[in-house]
Write a structure and sequence with these properties.
The chain has 347 residues and is of the alpha+beta class. Helix content is 68%, strand content 12%. It catalyses: ATP + protein L-histidine = ADP + protein N-phospho-L-histidine.
């Protein structure tokens, strides 16, 4: 700026050159203002313009003592220079304060980052500890569940063995007695107890302690009854149709006793005097109920027999167990004998 002032004060510089330089300075000042949105370039542009105008006045007076206008213009120019310098100083101070504030905020941000990092590290450590504790708890729970399964399996095995002991005692008692009626009653008791033992045996072998596969159970039950009553498997055929039907233990035991009584009756009475026959065991699970049908193509129950009021222990037991299951039972005598038992599902 001082260098520019010296050039402007030089009387050898033509007026046209001064005007061109002044116009250029004004353009640069306006451009600088538009770029930085501050008045500093305009201050120096105004100062340069005033110096240029005062120089023109000085040249016009041809070496005479400068007039009042010259000093006013020069003073105003210096004033704009002071404003410009003050603006520059203000910008420097403001920028310094901004940089200091930015440094302070940066330091605060770094402190917060460090604090948050420490918190995350603590949270991560706590999470890892919780995961470890949960893993240990899950392992303990798995061990407890395994021990529970082993215990339940052992209980079913022991119950089955104890029932088998009772069956064996009844068998020995039947062999020792000389009364055929008493021996037949003991045999019926054996089959009933064996039907309950068979459920515990199926539970022990399957590993699923919550439900019983009805198809497998009925096949085993029918096979045991045929052996118990000495039925020729080549003559009397048992067909089981109960795939994908599972029942709970509380339903399986009374339902098994019902099936035991009806199958035993069919084996003892339905095919008397005949060498062949067929017993069909059908079970279906529909919506909220289970339907079990036990049919045979034997000679059928006599029409004059009121099976619902007969004093027979077997039929009384069947009716009592159906009521216990809150179910219903019907008899169809059109073709042989067909008992249809309907009971509600549990769960």
């Amino acid at each position: 700026m001082v260098y520019d002032m010296i050039l402007i004060s030089d009387p050898d510089i033509p007026v046209a050159v001064n005007l061109l330089m002044c116009i250029g300075i004004v353009i640069v000042s306006v451009w600088g203002y538009l770029r930085i949105k501050r008045f500093t370039p305009l201050y120096f542009g105004c100062a340069y313009t005033l110096f240029a105008v005062s120089h023109v006045l000085l040249l016009a007076e041809s070496g005479q003592v400068p007039g009042l206008e010259f000093f006013i213009l020069r003073t105003a120019g210096y004033a704009f220079v002071v404003f410009g310098l003050f603006a520059i100083l203000t910008d420097i101070i403001h920028r310094t304060k901004t940089e200091e504030e930015l440094a302070r905020l940066t330091a605060q941000l770094e402190d917060r980052v460090l604090e948050r990092t420490a918190e995350l590290a603590r949270s991560n450590d706590a999470l890892i500890s919780e995961v470890c504790q949960r893993t240990i708890a899950e392992e303990r729970l798995k061990l407890i569940l395994h021990e529970k399964d082993v215990l339940i399996k052992e209980i079913h095995h022991r119950v089955k063995n104890n029932l088998q002991v009772i069956v064996s005692l009844l068998y020995l008692q039947a062999k020792a007695t000389g009364d055929p009626t008493c021996a037949a009653a003991l045999l019926d008791s054996q089959t009933r107890i064996k039907s309950m033992a068979l459920i515990h045996e199926n539970l022990y072998q399957s590993g699923d302690f919550s439900s019983v596969d009805l198809d497998r159970y009925l096949r085993n039950l029918a096979g045991n009854l045929m052996v118990a009553y000495g039925t020729d498997p080549g003559g009397i055929r048992v067909i089981t149709e109960a795939e994908d039907v599972r029942v709970t233990v509380t339903t399986a035991i009374p339902l098994g006793l019902i099936a035991n009584e009806l199958i035993a009756n069919a084996l003892k009475y339905a095919f008397a005097g005949r060498d062949c026959g067929e017993i069909t065991l059908t079970a279906k699970k529909e919506r909220a109920q289970i339907t079990l049908a036990i049919t045979d193509n034997g000679r059928g129950i006599p029409p004059n027999l009121d099976w619902e009021h007969t004093p027979s222990l077997g039929f009384n037991l069947v009716r009592m167990l159906v009521r216990q299951l809150k179910g219903a039972i019907t008899l169809d005598r059109t073709q042989g004998t067909a008992f249809v038992i309907t009971v509600p599902c549990e769960g």
